[in-house]
Design brief:
401 residues; alpha+beta; Anthranilate synthase; 20-stranded antiparallel β-sheet; 10 helices; 29% helix
Length: 401
């Protein structure tokens, strides 16, 4: 019989659907999915309030759904009509019910309700990267035009800050597991994850936690502020830069106020506090300006109400949220697809954890897509924000070098 290490390696070498999710001290791997729930605007409420509460396993850690909501379904969920945009018709959202969970810590431990879970067929697949360079949907000229349009909207008071998305794309089919572990060696981020299914894969080193709910306590951790890493730049100097930079401070304050307002909708009056204000987090190529907001959830609040109040995450859209989303959607020609949606896990006891899907690759229909965004605010320039997008995409783009 295969030992745990051998089983895990065989699982990676198969084409069996699986999900890997970063935890505080390792990784969780979910597989042997008994259900696959396709999400759309008509069933999202039923899924969140009914399906996710049904206990189906004797093993507590398997009483959960793991998966993602795309940007479109999250917009439609809060009543925003989507215009016609260029699309690859990827799923609006999928959640999976696992029968096996593997904990990768110092040692590997496995829990499964499937008797023969170790019996896996390995599969020799052909992977191909058909062209070396990524195409970018927005040139600096096109980006600058959008930037100028949005700057006028800010001056007219229609929005205060707005994030323009850019998409890098190339042809190819990747070995998702191999690429994910390569990314983790380069840039392991707190909300990193992988989904490998029969016809697509998603690979992410997302840094941003949108929802962390345990019992009646909830927190969100907005990121607003990015600084390129250099040899001379350390955390203390980065903090000094952010504090002295009026544009970064203004942008951060707006996003924190908006997220605090979002979380207040589902929390007891007076319970919402900023737990950590304006801290710096260090990553491979950049520093981020981060705050943490916490609150105590009102009694009888539903999963759907929690998701609706916080998604889509405001830090990757702009402020105020609803009018800014409508403005963004009217100007962006390509749909955002999974980008700025949310990936995570919902447990039957109501606990949940969700990120914002940024720094994320989608491989679907032999196309690899990566989207990034940076903020338009009075005082910023098109060229600076355009370059900032590249810094955000850099660690993922370099996987292909």
């Amino acid at each position: 019989m295969l030992n745990n290490n051998e089983y895990l390696n065989k699982l990676y070498q198969s084409d069996q659907p699986l999900i890997i999710y970063k935890t505080n001290n390792g990784f969780d791997v979910y597989t042997d999915f008994s259900k696959k729930y396709l999400i759309n605007r008509d069933n999202i409420k039923n899924f969140l309030n009914i399906q996710t509460k049904r206990k189906q396993s004797k093993i507590n850690s398997l009483n959960c759904y793991v998966g993602f909501f795309g940007y479109k379904v999250l917009c439609e969920n809060i009543g925003i009509k989507m215009p016609k945009q260029k699309t690859n018709n990827f799923y609006e959202g999928i959640f999976y019910k696992p029968s096996t969970k593997i904990n990768i810590r110092k040692n590997i431990s496995i829990k499964s309700v499937k008797k023969n879970y170790r019996q896996i067929k390995t599969n020799k697949k052909n992977y191909s990267i058909l062209n070396k360079k990524f195409d970018l949907n927005l040139s600096l000229k096109k980006y600058s035009k959008l930037f100028d349009d949005f700057s006028k909207n800010i001056k007219q008071g229609k929005t205060y800050q707005i994030k323009i998305a850019q998409t890098y794309s190339k042809k190819g089919k990747v070995n998702a597991v191999e690429l994910f572990w390569k990314l983790m060696k380069m840039n392991e981020s707190p909300e990193s994850f992988l989904i490998r299914d029969k016809n697509y894969s998603i690979i992410s080193c997302s840094p941003e936690t949108l929802i962390l709910k345990k019992k009646n306590l909830i927190s969100t951790k907005p990121i607003a502020g990015t600084l390129r890493k250099t040899k001379k730049m350390n955390i203390n100097r980065a903090l000094s830069f952010f504090r002295k930079n009026e544009k970064e401070t203004k942008e951060h304050n707006m996003i924190v106020d908006m997220e605090r307002n979002d979380i207040s909708k589902i929390c007891k009056t007076g319970s919402v506090k900023i737990d950590k204000l304006k801290k710096v987090e260090e990553y491979r190529d950049l520093f981020h300006y981060v705050s943490t907001i916490k609150g105590e959830i009102k009694k009888n609040t539903t999963n759907h109400e929690i998701i609706s109040s916080l998604m889509p995450g405001g830090s990757v859209i702009g402020c105020p949220k609803i009018s800014t989303i409508q403005l963004l959607n009217s100007k962006e020609k390509n749909d955002r697809n999974i980008y700025t949606g949310s990936f995570g896990v919902i447990h039957t006891n109501g606990d949940m954890r969700f990120n914002i899907m940024i720094r994320t690759l989608l491989n679907f229909k032999n196309i690899i897509n990566l989207s990034v965004a940076s903020g338009v605010i009075l005082g910023s320039t098109a060229k600076k924000e355009y370059n900032e997008n590249y810094i955000k995409a850099k660690s993922l783009l370099e996987l292909f070098h």
